[in-house]
Amino acid sequence: MYNGYENMLKKSLMLCGPLQAENSELQRRLEEQTARLQRAEGLSEDRGRRVEGLERLLGSLAVESTGLKEKVAAGEMELGRLREQTQQGREEQHRSEALEKELANMKEKIHQLDDMLKSQQRKVRHMIEQLQNSRTVIQERDRIIVELEEKVAYLEAENREIHDRMEYISGSPDPPPPELTESEDRQQVVYR
Description:
Blueprint: H1 2-84, H2 90-171, H3 182-187
């Protein structure tokens, strides 16, 4: 009978080593996944702030572009009136030339603003895509972390059971606890 207990003790010790190693590996992977998740969340928040800043810039550029377009329309109307009244003198001619230069400058500025607006819109779209991709990665990592935590909790419960059996085998006079079925064993695992 003592030999039987000794054999059970040896088998329990052989099972305990790999379970502890696997438990340690799962703990290490859980810590790595948590660190990666925190870095990804930091990047996601930074990108969110940058997207908000770019959207504000886009709004102000759009307002400025609209204002300039209105000024161009008003200038063109005034220039049209001045062209019809060229016989009114050199002052009108000088004003007409100044308006033409101003309109040319405004049109160039509008062209530059439109290019800038399109470029910023492309950047915002790209940043939004990156933000969505980051959120997808974070959700996947959350799912992996939950799975790892469940596996760690299950292995910890198995380790406790093996440890209790080893303590009993090594010296407890009480009879061993009744063997649990697999379904009962799983019901005793506490998930965090």
